[in-house]
Amino acid sequence: MKKIAKIMTSALSVAAIVFSVAAFSTTCAATHSQASNAPETQAVASMPAAQPVDLTYAADKALPSVVHIKYVQNSKIQTVEVQTDPFEDFFNDPFGGFFGRGQRGQGGTQKRQVQTPKRTATGSGVIISTDGYIVTNNHVVDGADELTVTLSDNQEYSARIIGTDKTTDLALIKIDGKSLPAIKIANSDDVKIGEWVLAIGNPLGLNNTVTAGIISAKARTLGANGVESFIQTDAAINAGNSGGALVNTNGELVGINAMLYSQTGSYSGYGFAIPTAMMNKVVGDLKEYGTVQRAMIGISGRDVKTQVDIEKEEGKEADYGTMEGIYVSEVVENSAAEDAGIEKGDVIIEVDGQKVKKFGDLSGIIAQKRPGDKVSLTYLHNKKKHTKDVTLKNEQGNTKVVKNADLDVLGADFREVTKAQKEQLEISYGLEVMKVSGGKMKDAGVPKGFIIQRVNDSPMRTVEDLQNAVKEASTSKEPVLYIKGIYPTGKPGYFAIGLQNE
């Protein structure tokens, strides 16, 4: 469950509200009454007359494309360290302090094996291709051992994960099907505030549920994910809606429902969806590269109005020549922004001719770019306008394609330590290096027999743990594995293995 500000719940627990038809009907009636009382010779007002909105077409069109996702995480045995009671230690082993097992009355830790319970949860997803590609939220599938997809006609499929992106909270999964009811995808950049939309999903165990509302705001940032430019809606979203569809009145997808803002944990006002403009880029990258190619301008900052308000509270006079744009509070070294000559205190106002009024606008534009793409950046320096073409870079400071590395890059074979090794070396977990045939392990001097216990401060209990560590590090700002472990003699050892692309 995601918690933002008050309480932010996500699709394994997401948002919801009740749509009021009465409010819409009253508006129509009032408009009609005003029009009827107007003189016949009076010109039609500039505001168009309100028309009834029929959402049945959109619901009928989009419902078959929204699926139910069941998440299963199987029970597992884990070894954990627990704090022991010092008095219990004393009574169980009154001579412990004399024989080197710890001093009496001070307590300590014990390693115990615990069995985690089986976990199940539900969410939603949207079919985007007839051959079975489905988009959902990362938090709907993260950590799943099994995924079962149920279509609106109750057909069931097992799904596999193609790729995930925690930064945008999106995931791409696949089922083996043909001629599936894929949804038509619209350009979310074209949606307007006040436009009617439907949220479709499986909230609170109620499958194939449709709720209605309007677009309340665009380019919202909440601090929930690394990259955000949410569509805000008052269409009801609740637990189970995550990964479902936000569609326009034509039944076309404009967003993937992700979370709600609530003081109670259930719907009480607004839901938030990831726009399709961002989704299309993420899906394309996951299909082609296996990981998202994320472009970076290389700044930290905030809305210029927020910066002005902060300075006013400090008793300072602030004038940046505009009240709309992104105030730059920090420029990352060797970044696209530094190359453009942007400095702390500058205000970014346009990217590729599109106005940037708030941080969500900037995030939404850059999220559609890849490292190596050129953009036109317009900014104010000492209130004077400048425009420069800059080349965006990846998180590692270059324009190369970033790919997920796998264990092959290490050039070694691994296995979990045996029970005998655990007892002999007094350890509870680790991975033994069985063979070093080349690759990064050989370059770093890691020998056969070395036992890896931690990588980048995460415990290595299984080979899968190591695979995940390699994958995560290979696409990070610092693509290095910091390895901590022990030699077969019990002597501790440390290694650093670079994973930079050649």
Structure description:
The strands form five sheets. The chain has a seven-stranded antiparallel beta sheet. A six-stranded antiparallel barrel has the order 11-12-13-16-15-14. The protein is 19% helix and 33% strand. The protein is α+β, with helices and mostly antiparallel strands.
Number of strands: 28
Shape: globular
Strand content: 25-35%
Main β-sheet, in a few words?
A: 7 strands, antiparallel
Provide the helix percentage.
Answer: 10-25%
Q: State the separation between the terminal residues, measured CA to CA.
A: 39 Å
Strand order of the largest sheet: 8-7-2-5-6-10-9
The averaged pLDDT comes out at 83
From the helix content, strand content and strand pairing, which structural class follows?
A: alpha+beta
What Rg do the Cα atoms give?
28 Å
Give me the number of helical elements. 11
Low-pLDDT parts are 1-45, 95-106
Distinctive features:
single chain, 502 residues, alpha+beta, 7-stranded antiparallel β-sheet, 6-stranded antiparallel barrel, 28 strands, 33% strand
Sequence-ordered SSE layout with sheet pairings:
Layout lengths: L6 E4 L10 H17 L18 H7 L3 E8 L3 E8 L1 H7 L15 E8 L3 E9 L5 E4 L1 H4 L4 E5 L5 E3 L1 E6 L4 E5 L21 E6 L7 E12 L9 E4 L11 E3 L5 E10 L7 E6 H13 L10 E5 H10 L12 E6 L4 H4 L7 E5 L2 E2 L3 H8 L7 E8 L2 E8 L20 E5 L2 H7 L5 E6 L2 H6 L6 E5 L2 E2 L3 H12 L5 E7 L5 E7 L4
Antiparallel strand pairs: 1-15, 2-5, 2-7, 3-4, 5-6, 6-10, 7-8, 9-10, 11-12, 11-14, 12-13, 13-16, 14-15, 15-16, 17-18, 18-19, 19-20, 19-21, 21-22, 23-24, 24-25, 25-26, 25-27, 27-28
